[in-house]
Amino acid sequence: METDAFALLGLPRRAALTADEVRLAFQQAAAACHPDAAGDEGDRAARTRRFQELNEAARRLVPVASRLRHLVALESPEVVVARAAVMDEALVGLFTKVGAAVGAAGEWVRRRQAASTFLARAGLAGREMRVQEGLEAAGGALRAAREALEEALVAADAARARGVAQGAVLGPLGQRAAFLEKWQAQVEAAWGAVFAAS
Predict the structure, then answer these.
(1) Which among 10, 24, 88 is positioned nearest to 62, based on CA atoms?
(2) What letter would DSSP give residue 35?
(3) Spatial separation of the C-alpha atoms in residues 136 and 133, rounded to whole Å
(4) What angle separates helix 19-33 from helix 41-61, to the nearest 10 degrees?
(5) Sign of torsion, CA 28 159 164 90?
(6) Is the dihedral of CA 90, 145, 68, 162 positive or negative?
(7) Mind listing the pLDDT tens digit for each residue in 70-90?
């Protein structure tokens, strides 16, 4: 059986935890066993192991997708989470929006980097605005999808509190979270590339 990352950090087993809650729990737990406070080498080694365990627990619980996989493994090991994720219509639409915005940003960056004269760069200004608007729209759609996911996680926690098994529900929510986390990283990278090229 896998180590309970929630218990290591003194957190309740909940699908809906914020990254800040996990980080705060890590900081509090880590402060009590930090290797720098060791009295001797044996104590330092034990504290280092414990500190690494806490760090791994936090790393597992901060990303929503990872947290949900861990929660399913702990509470519903009989549930097999599908490897191939299924995208519903809303996710397909979001994928299309994010892909278009990131692709347009990449194309603009390539053109901007190739523009060697002031006139060529000035000619790209209008396109830059459209690229930024596309990235803003994709970011807004991602925020809305993450808020909907958070509501679903709160509902799953409420059902779990009433004794309703949620393993089969949390698996697909974890897959949805993985998509959203990946696409958020892509949008952030596209913004960084646009700003760097500006």
Answers:
(1) 24
(2) G
(3) 5
(4) 170
(5) negative
(6) negative
(7) 998 898 888 766 565 678 899
Mean pLDDT of 21-31: 94
pLDDT at 81: 62
- The pLDDT tens digits of the residues spanning 33-84 come to 877 777 788 878 888 899 899 999 999 999 999 999 999 889 888 876 656 5
Q: How far is CA 189 from CA 11, 21, 87, 113, 132, in A?
A: 32, 26, 23, 16, 13
Number of H helices, E strands in the chain: 8, 0
Residues for the chain: how many in total?
A: 198
Q: Which two tokens stand for residue 100?
A: 């278009």
Q: Which fold has domain 5-62?
A: Helix Hairpins (1.10.287)
Give the Cα separation of 92 and 94 in Å (integer). 5
Instruction: Supply the pLDDT for residue 166.
Output: 83
Of the candidates 32, 31, 30, 36, the one whose C-alpha atom is nearest the C-alpha of residue 51 is 30
pTM: predicted TM-score of the whole model, two decimal places: 0.84
Whole-angstrom distance, CA of residue 124 vs CA of residue 130: 10
Extents of the domains making up the chain: 5-62, 89-197
In sequence order, the 6+-apart residues with CB closer than 8 A to the CB of 3 are 53, 57
